[in-house]
Structures are given as C-alpha cells and as structure tokens.
C-alpha cells in the first residue's frame, strides 16, 4: 500500500497513544473497608503525565529500562475438595437453571464464571493438585484431601500396567477441561505428595522415602501421568517431583527426598519427557519454604540443575526476600511461589489478625490482607517469582469438605479463594481480591499474547514507606499496539500498629521524565496506561527476553549420575519374564 509521507505519521501517533500526555484511565480499586471491591474507578479529571515536579511526599519512579522476569499469573490449588464442590455446583446448576444447557455447562452463574475463568479478569496460574495420591487417615491435621489412592495401587505392578488416572475422581478431568475450554490461559501444574506406597521403604504414603530400586520406576510413573493427562485433553504446563521433600509425618501423605535423590528422579524424568514429546513441560523442584532457598533448593540445582526449569517455594517458613539469594545464585532458573493459605475467621483488613500457619501450626500475628500484597502478590514477584498461588481454590464456609475427623487448618479451618455453600451460593474472599488486583496489572493484553514483565521501580519521598508497589509492562502481539504499563499499589498507611487512622497518600508517578498525580486510598489500587514501545532504546540490566521462558525446547540434561538409573525392565527387582513393553 502506498501512502503519503505525512498521513501515516498521524495514524501512528493516534494508534500508539503517542500524544505527549499518556493518561491513566484504567483504575481498579479495593479499599480497606470494602466500599470498593475490585471496582473500576472513573477518573475525572483523568490523571495525565505532564512536566509537573515530583511530590516530596511520595514519587513512584517507573524505570522501564530494567526489564525483569515474566509474570505468568496468579491462581489456586485445585484440590479434590475444590473439585468436589465445583462438581456439585455444576450438577445443581445443570438441573436448576433454564439458562444452562448440556452444551454450555458453567459451574456458577455468569458473574463468578467471569471471576474464575475469564481471561479478561483472572489468570488461573499453574498450581493444580488434581490428585492426592495416597491413602488418607481419619485424623489428618491437613486440609481437604478426599481422594485417598494413587494412580496405581497394585502392589508390585512393575510395568505400571495398572496405572489409571481414572482412579482419581473423573470429574476432576471434566472440570479442568471445562475451565480450559473457556480460559485459554489455564496452566496446570501437577504435584505428587507421595509415590505409590509399594514403591516406598515405609510401605505407606505417610512418610518414608522412595526405595532406590524404584527410582526409575517412579520417574516412569510421573511420565505416564503426564501422558494420561494429555490423553484426557489436559495440557500440563509443569510437573514437580514431590511436595515438601523435607517434611515427614505419619498423619499426612509425605515423602522425604535428599536433593540427590530428587535430582536423580528429575534427571531421568526430564530425559523421558524430552524423548516422549514433553520437552516444553516445565520440571520444577523443591516445593517447600523460603527458609531453604540457600539450602535444599540451592543444593538441588547444584546436583541436578540441568534437569530443572526452576524451583517452587511455599510461604510457611522464612521470608520472601530469601528468594533473591536463590535468584542470585541461579539467575536463569524460574521461581514460583506455589503455596500459602488463609484460615477462617481472620479479619479482612484492618485489625491485627492471627494468621494460623497451616503447616507448622504456629500463630503468626499479621494483618492479613496487607500480608498478602506485601509478601505474595507484590512481594514474591518483586523477589523474582513468576507466579504466586494460594492453597485451595474453593472450599465451603467451614473449610470443608474434609474427611471425617480431619482437623485441617487448626481449629478454624482453611479458607478457599472462593467459598461455595451447600445451597449453591458463593462468595469470594480476601485472597481473591488481592489476587484480582494483582492480576489486573499483569494479565496478557492480547489473547495468546506476551506475559507481563516486572520492570524497574523506586518509591521516593518522606512517605515512601506508606506504599508497596509493583510495576509491570505488557508487550503486545502486534508492534503497532502500544504496550501497557501498570502499577499495583498497596497503601497501608492505616496506623494499625499504634492506633487506627487510615490516610490516603497523594503521590506523583514518574514515567519517561513526566509525572502524573494520583491519590491512593488505604487499600489496593491497580492502574494502567499505554505508551509507545521505546524499550529497544533502553539498556536492559536484566533481560529475560531471550531467557528460559522463551526457549523453544530443552537440551538433554546431563547424563552424569544417570548410569545406575538406566531403566532396564529385564533386570528390575521382581520383574516377571518378558519385560515391560509399556515402559520401553
Ligand atoms: C479410601 O477410600 C475408600 C472409598 O473411597 C475407602 O473404602 C477406603 O477405606 C479408604 N482408605 C483409607 C486408607 O482411608
Ligand atoms: C493462636 O492464637 C489464638 C489467640 O491467641 C489462640 O486462641 C489459639 O489457641 C492459638 N492457636 C495455636 C494453634 O496456637
Ligand atoms: C446459603 O447458605 C449460606 C451458608 O450456610 C447462608 O449464609 C445463606 O443464607 C444461604 N442462602 C440461601 C439462599 O439459602
Ligand atoms: C517492545 O520492545 C521490546 C524490547 O525491545 C521488544 O522485545 C518487543 O518485541 C517490542 N514489542 C513490540 C510490540 O514492538
Ligand atoms: C497513630 O496512633 C498513635 C496511637 O494511637 C497516635 O498517637 C498517632 O497520632 C497516630 N498517628 C497517626 C498518623 O494517626
Ligand atoms: C472507606 O474507605 C475509603 C478509603 O479510606 C474512604 O474514602 C471511604 O469514605 C470509606 N467509606 C466508609 C463508608 O467508611
């Protein structure tokens, strides 16, 4: 197409929003007193970037020259409990609602449907536990696991012929498929809590370790689980070897691994995954608390770094800043924050609350909503995580369903991101609003388009401590479209520790040398603007754009340590004659 030299410039300026004043017109807010709950706020006048001076009280400086890790999204654990509640509701709606037919099964009404699965609003990120492998005792102190079997309960099934993911509740797959069908951003992350009991030295799912001679077998078991999910039409984004490999109890499915043994399973599994077409599926290690970032997590990378795409942390011990030590040692490895939970009965925002640490059963005094933003949805990303997730997507108002006699989350019970009651009513909790506010700043702008990335940020001024801020850019599929710049801002200037006096903070926001003014109420605000992509002009200090996330495939992990693990069906302990064609 031939066009005059002047016309296209005008078109470009308009379509890129290149007019010298970018406008902050997309603003979403949740206030401490819940008068706003993730609500769009019309701006009048619309805050505009001009040449005004920086506020001495608070000036948020956005530094797009620094581009950090991708931010994939936020989500929750799809436990058996969550699956059962969603499945029940699905049936209820299917029966009761004239608006839902067999061809359009929705779990909830249109509104929650949006909340849960719409890519416009909410990314279901990678944390899924659609199966709880082992048997569960009557008196588990843990939350909400209902399925009590592994995928292969046949003792000594050395060919894994009896591995059957249908032994998990079949609706788990139906629900995942339904969610996947309406949310193209769904990422499923599989995480076992124990190998089948017959592979362990304890002979039970509750504690003990994988017997070394079954190590190759268990790697095959994980591979076959991936294949089974694939055959069910579920795309698996990531798989881990073991939940909390340092934790052992006889009252809960647990398995201990040394970094060496976990690394050996992973090294063999990764090799199998590459051979069988799962080279793009992430293999994630560790899955325990922040306090071991320089301990177990680091050791695991030293012994088997070639096999792992990264590690996952939980929030129950240590502090989020410890993720940085791991990142500094292994900058090319991905970090996920995959577990944290709320407990029922804690206050929503303002009062100092007791946060019952579900894993250690200790009381931690925290202001919970603030804790979430400070440590999880702003904090973990600030400390290099690509995603942050909460334990239990859906529970009822009592933290059920659980096995009879179970006492999950202490006396209070766990709180899901969403509460669904027995009569089919539902509500979303503070976990949801924290997550929704954070998601709004990072959700891909284009369907199937690039993930957001964290960018550089500084908060200056006498009241800079009153704000906790994350800054992100979301590039576009088409170079004709302007990237979106977003801030997620917690104003926690409520004087909660010595009185109660929630005060707004008026701040300037500095971007490309210009500034806009915005008044943040106590609460969480997500705001966005668009500006032409000039990132290529900047020097990026830390550039993940050609990093692991963008890799097409994976190299074969190092063979070291694999020799004695080479799986030879003919020689496996107790193997019947003829070998296992299924495993070759
Ligand atoms: C596992 O669940 C089945 C029913 O689903 C039950 O018959 C069996 O006793 C349970 N096993 C344990 C160890 O709880
Ligand atoms: C946690 O603290 C509350 C309030 O002080 C107390 O009632 C409860 O028993 C404590 N729970 C545990 C498990 O220590
Ligand atoms: C549904 O159950 C919840 C929790 O028990 C209750 O608060 C609510 O009033 C019930 N709603 C209806 C319409 O029955
Ligand atoms: C924006 O700039 C970045 C950094 O140079 C580049 O990777 C990206 O492709 C650009 N996006 C568009 C849509 O031009
Ligand atoms: C915070 O609370 C303390 C104790 O009630 C009070 O003395 C102080 O003036 C309060 N500060 C603000 C800024 O409200
Ligand atoms: C709720 O809090 C916001 C922000 O602090 C404030 O502007 C608003 O007046 C409060 N509303 C009520 C009803 O207290």
From TrEMBL:
Signal sequence segment: 1-21
InterPro entries in the record: GH (IPR017853), Glyco_hydro_30 (IPR001139), Glyco_hydro_30_TIM-barrel (IPR033453)
User: Tell me, what's a Pfam family for it?
Assistant: Glyco_hydro_30
Q: Where is the Glycosyl hydrolase family 30 TIM-barrel domain?
A: 151-401
List, in alphabetical order, the Gene Ontology terms for molecular function in this entry: glucosylceramidase activity
The answer on whether this UniProt entry bears the keyword Repeat reads no
Where, if anywhere, are coiled coils annotated? none
Quick check: keyword Phosphoprotein in the entry? no
Q: Give a GO biological-process term.
A: glucosylceramide catabolic process
Task: Quote a single Gene Ontology cellular component term.
Answer: membrane
Name the domain of life this protein comes from: Eukaryota
Q: What is the protein name given in its UniProt record?
A: Glycosyl hydrolase family 30 TIM-barrel domain-containing protein
Q: Which organism is it from?
A: Ephemerocybe angulata
Query: Lineage of the source organism?
Result: Eukaryota, Fungi, Dikarya, Basidiomycota, Agaricomycotina
